[in-house]
From TrEMBL:
Residues 1-21 form the signal peptide. PROSITE patterns: GH10_2 (PS51760), PROKAR_LIPOPROTEIN (PS51257). SUPFAM superfamilies: (Trans)glycosidases (SSF51445), Galactose-binding domain-like (SSF49785). Residues 213-508 form the GH10 domain. Keywords: Carbohydrate metabolism, Hydrolase, Polysaccharide degradation, Repeat, Signal. This is GH10 domain-containing protein. InterPro entries: CenC_carb-bd, Galactose-bd-like_sf, GH, GH10, GH10_dom. It comes from the Eukaryota. The keyword Transmembrane does not apply.
Length: 567
């Protein structure tokens, strides 16, 4: 605690209170005394709740299997005497062709805390479908999924590098056809992103105006969809026109990173990002910062890597102050900790609470509504990366908030989204469900898909999945244009003609917007329309009046659906 306060005082030059109140990041990652019933009744899993003992279940990997029961009479399987990671509980199932599967289970370990993941062995392949940090003394939910290419016999089992006994209960493997999955996604998107509104036209006395002509024009989409931009945009008018005609939010690819803005100690140069900020501001494009600190030791400025403690602290202080000062009207600047779960450069130098101090310092220096993101990769993309599990992400977020509760109001979840084909769409949805429990804004911050014939197809699937999830508040594509090529995924060629990925983006921008609408009010002066969330210009005219009135209307989740337009 003393080190945290010392860091805060040094960085902010402000007096920091020394009392820390309790905080929580929402109802994430419940650990329950008894597991609930299996989802979907277990789906294709037999004896999913172990009410018939161990019937249908086997020991995997020459391990030992026993039946356990709680004082309340709940029955479950126990993998005992484990000496190998894969020794656990298993069941053989029959998988269908080209099908999405949700997979869930409730797990406990006999001692301490252990990472446990579920694996589906199919056609000689071992598919990681999800994981959880299981605890002793209570049940934790593993939530994941997979997509099959070809059907056939398969086997579900659990594995852990820890040698503790693994307790398993309430297992579910539920198939969904691609059509069923898409229909559910469309219904969710309609609920999360659209609203039926009623506009009532009245005269100056408040009397309804039947027969009034009403027109609606979309001014700005409610769902932020953007792309990274490179410094090339400052000297390429074609790039400027292409970008500004599509996107409402951006992130600078490398231009705001520490190694770009301070290449030598004390020699700060923000001329390029300042010019990019001005371009964005002049075109009404919001800006997300990228990034304040990056915990990867290989991504620090070279002169930073070997600094002694006092000099590093001074450099970090200068960095955070200069970045926070870059906030400008019209620019949504976001402080970000990068790759907290995989790397620990600053924690190793300053102590485990270094990130808490950085977020708190940024919050105290910027008292506005700026969000502070903890940015991470593989949390959505790779169910086999145990370091980046959604539950581990939420745990780290709670640590940052718990160490300095004032962080809680401005924290947000940043998910990079660097996908490779084939993309595990069911796992992506399961991960978003888990992260949503934290109760803070969620953004996909660097979305791309590795090259190949299916690149555009999977990009569309990812974007549709994100758009349909009510916790996701924005998406940025990692597709900054450079003449020598993009990082992984380009949207256009060098003449700014769309590639298939660009066509996907344009099609979705159109689909997620509302085309201009026009009509007349009914006998009570009402005009009703279903609109995508966003800002609209509503114009009303009436034959008996020699005037028309235009009014701005904002349609969003949680706001009212009844608007009055006085003519």
């Amino acid at each position: 605690m003393g080190k945290l306060l010392f860091l805060l005082a040094w960085i902010t030059l402000l007096q920091v209170p020394c009392t820390i109140a309790a905080a929580a990041a929402g109802a994430a990652c419940h650990c329950l005394p008894e597991p609930p019933e299996p989802q979907y009744g277990g789906g294709v899993v037999r004896n999913a709740d172990f009410s018939a003992g161990l019937h249908g279940w086997s020991a995997f990997g020459y391990g030992s299997l026993a039946e356990g029961s709680s004082p309340a009479g709940n029955r479950y399987a126990v993998a005992t005497n484990r000496t190998r990671p894969y020794q656990s509980v298993s069941q053989k199932v029959l998988l269908q062709n080209d099908t999405h599967y949700t997979l869930s289970a409730w797990l406990q370990v006999s001692d301490g805390v252990a990472d446990v993941r579920v694996v589906v062995k199919a056609a000689g392949d071992f598919i990681h479908a999800g994981g959880v940090a299981a605890k002793s003394g209570c049940w934790s939910m593993l939530k994941g999924g997979l997509t099959t290419v070809s059907g056939g016999r398969a086997e579900i089992y659990f594995e852990s590098n820890a040698t503790a006994d693994i307790w398993v209960d309430s297992v579910s493997l539920k198939p969904f056809t691609k059509e069923e999955w898409s229909n559910h996604r469309d219904a969710s998107a309609s609920t999360a992103r659209r609203k039926t509104v009623r506009l009532q036209a009245t005269d100056s006395a408040g009397n309804p105006l039947p027969g009034a002509a009403v027109s609606l024009e979309n001014v700005r989409n409610g769902f932020p969809l953007g792309a990274a931009m490179s410094g090339e945009i400052l000297r390429n008018p074609s790039y400027q026109r292409w970008f500004a005609s599509r996107f409402t939010v951006t992130t600078f690819e490398n231009e705001m990173k520490w190694y770009s803005t301070e290449p030598a100690p004390g020699r700060e140069d923000y001329s390029v990002p300042d010019a990019m900020l001005e371009f964005a501001r002049s075109h009404g494009i919001a800006v997300r910062g990228h990034n304040v600190f990056w915990d990867d030791p290989n991504q620090q400025p070279r002169w930073v890597q070997g600094l002694p403690y006092p000099q590093l602290l001074a450099a970090a202080s200068r960095r955070i102050r200069s970045v926070v000062a870059k906030g400008t009207p019209g620019a949504h600047r976001v402080g970000r900790g990068e790759r907290e779960l995989h790397f620990s450069f600053f924690e190793r130098r300053f102590g485990w609470d270094a990130s808490t101090a950085f977020y708190a310092a940024a919050r105290m220096l910027d008292t506005g509504s700026t969000l502070m993101f903890m940015n991470e990769y593989n949390t959505l993309e790779q169910p086999g990366d145990m370091a980046a599990l959604p539950a581990r992400y939420v745990q780290r977020l709670k640590q940052i908030i718990g160490g300095y509760p004032q962080n809680g109001a401005g924290m947000a979840i940043g998910l990079e989204g660097h996908f490779t084909a084939p993309v595990n769409i069911p796992y992506m949805r399961a991960a978003l469900d888990t992260l949503a429990q934290a109760g803070v804004p969620v953004w996909l911050t660097e979305v791309d898909v590795g090259g190949g014939a299916s690149q555009a197809y999977y990009l569309e699937e990812i974007l549709r999945e994100a758009y349909a999830h009510p916790a996701v508040q924005g998406v940025i594509l990692w597709a900054a244009w450079r003449p020598q090529g993009c990082y992984v995924m380009c949207l256009t060629d060098n003449d700014f003609n769309n590639l298939p990925q660009g066509d996907v983006v344009d099609r979705l921008i159109t689909e997620w917007s509302t085309a201009p609408r026009a009509g007349t009010t009914d006998a009570e002066g009402f005009f009703q329309a279903e609109l995508a969330h966003g800002e609209y210009k509503v114009t009303v005219t009436h034959p008996s009046l020699n005037t028309s009135v235009s009014q701005s209307v904002k349609v969003e989740m949680g706001s009212g659906s009844h608007y009055f337009i006085q003519v």
